[in-house]
Amino acid sequence: MSLVRLLDEQQQRLKALVELLEQERSLLAAAEIDGKRLADIAEHKQTRLQKLEATETLRQSVQRRLGYADGPAGARQAALEAGCLDDWERTLERTREAHRLNTLNGELVTLRMGQNKRLLAFIHQAAEKTVYGASGRVAAQPGRFNASV
């Protein structure tokens, strides 16, 4: 497979990944999260990442087989000599975009988790303060006065 075709395939897969990451970001930013849809996106994202990894492994293999050094410098040189440097640069740009979106989504997940923890702590604290007795009335709690007298 030619380097041009490999880079084109990588760009298409990166584009699809970026679209999924944008959908994921929208779901994470919504007031109410659609857990089923988020799980579906995570599954599709995993599949796309595996395919992207396979393409990248093949590209690196071709790069080495053609005698270019491993790493970004060798990849750039291979693309330059194959006449597809612009394709390589677009591939790198899409990779950076996917990385940026994935990082942003991770931050959104962290924010949501923090909100959920605070909400659960509040609910737990409120539940401890309103313990009902056998009569169905709120029992007196330590540190609180009994207003039912």
UniProtKB/TrEMBL annotation:
Record family assignment: Belongs to the FlgN family.
Keyword annotations of the record: Bacterial flagellum biogenesis, Cell projection, Cilium, Coiled coil, Flagellum
Gene3D superfamilies tied to this protein: FlgN-like (1.20.58.300)
One BP term from GO: bacterial-type flagellum assembly
Protein name, as recorded: Flagellar protein FlgN
Entry keyword annotation includes Coiled coil: yes
Top-level taxon in the UniProt lineage: Bacteria
Lineage: Bacteria, Pseudomonadati, Pseudomonadota, Gammaproteobacteria, Oceanospirillales
Coiled-coil annotated spans: 4-34
SUPFAM superfamilies on file: FlgN-like
Main function: Required for the efficient initiation of filament assembly.
